[in-house]
């Protein structure tokens, strides 16, 4: 069963198209990430879902009920949608308890019971209830914002880059905690981010947005391993793209003969390998492709090796895990794991 359906959503500002016919389905209790570069239209799409913007064309449907389109317009406060913005947007003149309890109905005792329950749900110490927002850490502020959004028992939760202001370690921990919380509460959610790693780790479904259109939608691993085109492949992570000649499930390229993921394709094509599919060996092996390391760009955990193939003098750059013993002049062997992906024509 779907929680949200978007049909042909379009939006323009001053004659410039920002969204062009976006269609998306979000299943009940699932986590979707909309990822794309700045200016791709992802935040505009989120604001249309929330009810902060009106689409020029198309329809927004929540649990079978039209919210926008075809003459229908349900205002944001009546949609049953929670929204957590990038900065949390806590009320500075309210305490933590005041922020979480904002909009709750019932007696003072009933409100306090709900606030305590929500603080437990988002793993906030109840002793923080009397503090002001400026007295909290960034991660604590985001949890308060999430608790406030959950207090309205939303059918859908929208997250607009809520982790971007957090330090790297705290960002990962907070993201994991939020994902687990939403899954436990069975609340469908949409995360908007420009961070591909964040999208891949958070979501059950990833939608890659480019120039106001969804370039590809699917499960994270599917998009990472089988992107629809080169820009999508590059946006989702490091990649090695090569020209090749295809024949009966194999590709001949600079790295030799490689298995590919479509045995029906033939002729010239572009293929893709992820860095983890290329295993660099220091011990020469007669059955493997040999290359000479001409230079190394060391960046800690990862290094970029410039290689000159031993049998052709062609050159290629490969990112790999840094390891001791590999230096300029080293002879290495290359082993390809799995299949290369063939881009569509």
From TrEMBL:
InterPro entries: AAA+_ATPase, ABC_SmlMolc_Importer, ABC_transporter-like_ATP-bd, ABC_transporter-like_CS, ABC_transpr_FbpC, Mo/tungstate-bd_C_term_dom, P-loop_NTPase. The keyword S-adenosyl-L-methionine does not apply. GO terms for biological process: quaternary ammonium group transport. GO terms for molecular function: ABC-type ferric iron transporter activity; ATP binding; ATP hydrolysis activity. The keyword Nucleotidyltransferase does not apply. SUPFAM superfamilies: MOP-like (SSF50331), P-loop containing nucleoside triphosphate hydrolases (SSF52540). This is Amino acid ABC transporter substrate-binding protein. Residues 4-236 form the ABC transporter domain. GO terms for cellular component: membrane. Keywords: ATP-binding, Cell membrane, Ion transport, Iron, Iron transport, Membrane, Nucleotide-binding, Transport. It comes from the Bacteria.
